[in-house]
């Protein structure tokens, strides 16, 4: 069996990724593919935590642009992440992967409350832990949630799985034919050049806590496993220069 480079990881998935080509909702084949890739990594003995966005169902910014109170719009986005988390949990458990959903908003009928020590204990027992409902606070993205939870559970890396891009580019490769793909960057580079890998709050949190980030495409099956095994895929964003 191959030896993983990382023993504990946070996998960050965008909500839009779950929609696939549908553009909205949860695409069954996509979520099964994601669950399969998570299982491959868990079978290596790697401790896996997952943070899922909610943009396939609701985006807080859209609500605020409609004139909705930003706090209410963001809470709706958090509830969308809970729906995605439960769907991913179900797909994983159909593959016999023990999974726990922990929510930052108390909803005990469907998920455990987020408790750091309990999350770590689940991971030590080789259960996949899905962190739902963001940080539980408005004005914070799920990117920031991934950075915060990675720091709290002492994850060795954040794996940022993208839907339509295979790394970090100097510009949007769909709009600029001269866009250059980076193999490595520092968080300072990301912040200075405004590359949009993560929002500035998340990038600063990762930089301050020296948490590396690997940005890659999950649409090619097996990429999550390759990242965990230390293969050169996507773009590595380092905690320090």
TrEMBL record:
Allosterically activated by GTP. Inhibited by UTP. Keywords: Allosteric enzyme, ATP-binding, Cytoplasm, Kinase, Nucleotide-binding, Pyrimidine biosynthesis, Transferase. Catalyzes the reversible phosphorylation of UMP to UDP. It is found in: Cytoplasm. Residues 7-217 form the Aspartate/glutamate/uridylate kinase domain. Residues 20-25 are annotated as: Involved in allosteric activation by GTP. InterPro entries: AceGlu_kinase-like_sf (IPR036393), Asp/Glu/Uridylate_kinase (IPR001048), Uridylate_kinase (IPR011817), Uridylate_kinase_bac (IPR015963). HAMAP family: PyrH_B (MF_01220_B). It catalyses: UMP + ATP = UDP + ADP. It comes from the Bacteria. Transmembrane segments: none annotated. Pathway: Pyrimidine metabolism; CTP biosynthesis via de novo pathway; UDP from UMP (UMPK route): step 1/1. Its main location: cytoplasm. UMP binds at residues 54, 74, 135-142. Homohexamer. The lineage of its organism: Bacteria, Bacillati, Bacillota, Bacilli, Bacillales. It holds the Pfam family AA_kinase. It is an enzyme of class 2 (transferase). ATP binds at residues 12-15, 55, 59, 163, 169, 172. This is Uridylate kinase. GO terms for biological process: 'de novo' CTP biosynthetic process; UDP biosynthetic process.
């Amino acid at each position: 069996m191959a030896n993983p480079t990382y023993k504990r990881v946070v996998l960050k998935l965008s909500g839009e990724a779950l929609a696939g080509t549908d553009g909205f909702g949860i695409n069954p084949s996509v979520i099964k593919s994601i669950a399969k890739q998570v299982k491959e990594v868990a079978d290596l003995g790697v401790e896996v935590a997952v943070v899922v966005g909610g943009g396939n169902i609701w985006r807080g910014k859209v609500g605020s642009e409609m004139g909705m109170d930003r706090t209410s719009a963001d809470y709706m986005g958090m509830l969308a992440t809970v729906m995605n988390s439960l769907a991913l949990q179900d797909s994983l458990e159909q593959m016999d992967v023990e999974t726990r959903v922990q929510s930052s908003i108390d909803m005990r009928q469907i998920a455990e409350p987020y408790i750091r020590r309990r999350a770590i204990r689940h991971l030590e027992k080789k259960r996949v832990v899905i962190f739902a409902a963001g940080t539980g606070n408005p004005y914070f993205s799920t990117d920031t949630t991934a950075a915060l939870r990675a720091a709290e559970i002492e994850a060795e890396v954040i794996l940022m799985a993208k839907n339509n891009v295979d790394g970090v580019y100097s510009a949007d490769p769909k709009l600029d034919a001269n866009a250059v793909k980076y193999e490595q960057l520092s968080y300072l580079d990301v912040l200075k050049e405004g590359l949009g890998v993560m929002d500035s709050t998340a990038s600063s949190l990762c930089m301050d806590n020296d948490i590396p980030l690997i940005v890659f495409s999950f649409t090619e099956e097996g990429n999550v496993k390759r990242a965990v095994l230390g293969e050169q895929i996507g773009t590595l964003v380092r905690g320090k220069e």
